[in-house]
Specification:
- It is a single chain.
- This protein is an alpha/beta fold and 518 residues long.
- It has 15 helices and 22 strands.
- It has helices at 72-75, 90-103, 117-126, 150-156, 166-176, 180-195, 213-222, 243-252, 295-307, 319-329, 353-362, 378-389, 399-404, 422-429, 449-463, and strands spanning 7-14, 23-30, 33-39, 52-55, 60-63, 65-70, 82-83, 110-113, 136-139, 146-148, 199-207, 229-235, 258-265, 312-316, 334-335, 338-339, 344-347, 365-369, 409-412, 481-484, 501-506, 509-513.
- A hairpin with a 2-residue loop joins strand 2 (23-30) and strand 3 (33-39).
- The radius of gyration is 24 Å and the shape is globular.
Length: 518
Amino acid sequence: MQKEADKIFQSTCIFDSVSEEAYPGYVAIKGKQILEVGCGDIPNELVGESTEVVDYGEGTICPGFGDTHTFFTGYVVDYLGVDLSETVNLKQIVERLSENLEMNPETVVLFGNHLQPELAEKINKGGELEQVKRPVILFTAGHGYCAMNKVAEEVFGFTPDTCGSSEAIYKIMKIYLNDRDFIIPQFKAYMSMLNSHGITSVKEMGFDNFYGFTDILAELEQKAELSLRISFMSQPVGKKMDLAYGKEMKKKYHSDFLRFSGYNQMTDGLIVSEEADLMEPYEGKDYCCQKNIDYALLEEDVLTADREGFRFTLHSEGDGSFHKILQIYDKCEKENGRLKNRHGITDLELTGAVDEEKMAQLGVFGEIYTQVYMLDSCENWKQDYDEKLGSRRSRYMNYRSMADHGVILSGATDLPMLIPDIPEAIYYGCGTYAADGKEPVQPENGLTIPEMLKTWTIGSQYAMEQEHILGTLESGKQADIVVFDRNLLKTDIEEIRKAHVLRTICAGQDVYKEMENR
């Protein structure tokens, strides 16, 4: 006998991420699961006295989205310590720091955020923080620069110019990640922010052993306070890859809401900095990369992890690193020609067609930053990459070619570099518009809107090894669902960024619901 649903959402645009087409129909939810998905009218037997039935008109109803490359522990640095955004002189800064110290006399390090860059530079030159006997680090917005005293430099071993690097940030993480009064409210706010964009799953990067933050995540899960499913990876920064840690995490965390997902590591750098590893030299140069990359160590780590059943993701900016990463993965264990463990490649800015085919054959997934065009104008994108790549610029962010070769793509942002926003991902990743919106940068390289939606739904869940329970609207799967205010497949690409989330459901529960008076 058919059970009555708890909630039923109706729309003329159901995008289930199984089909390429949307259809008029309904999604019925019972408890944590999807009870039924159907075309046409809602069957009477699904509706009980307590069933919530909502007709969303032309609004898109689709599976919850997954961001496969996020970095909360970097994002939260912008909220660390005292908010200095309104301070305009040294006197105000000292007053804010003094107030904070009076309220928190046990503070080991005085942190501040959103300091104006010109003030930070002035303080560093004038040495006004030297009178403070404990470490002081005052970050500018985005934490790429800071004002700090010599005590802080001696204790943490970095400078104002290097404070935004991974090698610097990890040295202060164990301080703020274990400040429970600070980090727990910040993580809850972070989850809410992502929920408001329809994100119900993330793959979080955690440096080394995450410095104990997994204990807090486990506590939140136990209290049913996670509104986000979290797969986390260990990224070796302060020490070498720790297999013992991975084994402990894999044994300890394997639920639907909290699980260990393997290891992540950087390889090459930015193309514009000529630190990306290219197959052929940069235009007018006799070298392929200005960065020294230890591929032998990367191979050793990947093969060691693979033998123990762990997954790996490696970053790739240039087509040279892309090729070499695939050579490493090709040495991993396989079953019927495909990798036994599900390894991935992140970023994928410049790729070659032959290697894309190899990537698909091996079953390596790709994590793509689909919103990256928002970081500059169309003219600057073309000029910068023409200068570095010449004719190879035509293959820059060629999502079309990767998809055509059968590569499974997943949505990612490298948050805090970008904040996940699927209408924006469509605008930049399908339309290939840049920040100025004047013209597409490379329209032939974009995905279709259905492909982009699948990238952020079933593609992302494939990357997190959760596609058996998430990523599509199908009976029996977990009820992670997002509702938009319009039909995303019929909205003009120039208008798509105006679309917004009305409601986000995770495991059958509301985790975001737009206020009526928006």
